[in-house]
Amino acid sequence: MTEDHATYSKDFPEGYGDFKLIASDGVIFCFPKAFLSWMSPVFADMLSVGGDTSDAGDIQKQVSVTEDSTTLDLLLRFFDPKKKVRPLEEQTLPALLEAARKYQVPEVMDWWEEQVKLEKQGPSNEVTTVIKYPMLSLALAVRHGLDNTARLALRELIKAPSSEIQTKLHFDSTLLTHLIQLRQERYKILSSKMLDYYMSRDRCVDCIWHYAELSHHMARLIAALADEPSLRICQTAVSWPVSPCRWVHWASSQEMLEKWWISEITTLEDELPSLPAKPCEHYLQICFRL
């Protein structure tokens, strides 16, 4: 690419710094060498041995990188105090984290861990990435060794609709098996609670209608919980009937849910699940049992 036809980054234009980074799609980023060396030991080593020159008379150093211009723009914003970090996006996050790992920039990982906290952010109540993209967050967290973030993602996936865990992302089979087991355990807890309540109801001649109606609703609820084992389903999957019984004063099932179960299930859903044991840990556990 000749200098006359070079494409420069809009936010890191020609003259912005004394070093040129050429993205894989040909876009040139100008950036101060001092910042590159300060923020990344990989760039520091790279610059210490020098770079190529576009021609013999050009003293401006440059190097080509494998990242595209979108990823390089996102990464350099963490190097430059004048630039604002861009919001998280599902499409660009994997490449950004991979670049941060490659160039040893822990600030990116620290930033992402802050972003995935489950608290609501700002007056707009925007949810965090781990809630928007739990499977992606889980995959990236495990890939980059961020255990706390992985546990946050697992917490969301346990109570998510089954469609949320359908993904083309590469996952270790142990991790997927662990997630499925956690969802099955949650389903058993919630469905058992509902069935115990249903089976323990008093019966009388006047309540045959209510008992049959409740049976229908319970069947629908149990089926819904199999797809999404969550408090949300317990509250919204069915319209709970109220008993017409004149003698046995049943509270409505919805009232009982609100009085006794919401607090218990909410506490359950707030707990951080464990990660699957690593191979070495699992092996040691087996050995100790022998």
From TrEMBL:
InterPro entries: BTB/POZ_dom, SKP1/BTB/POZ_sf
Pfam families documented for this protein: BTB (PF00651)
Domain BTB: 17-120
SMART domains given in the database record: BTB
Protein's name according to its UniProt entry: BTB domain-containing protein
Taxonomic lineage: Eukaryota, Fungi, Dikarya, Basidiomycota, Agaricomycotina
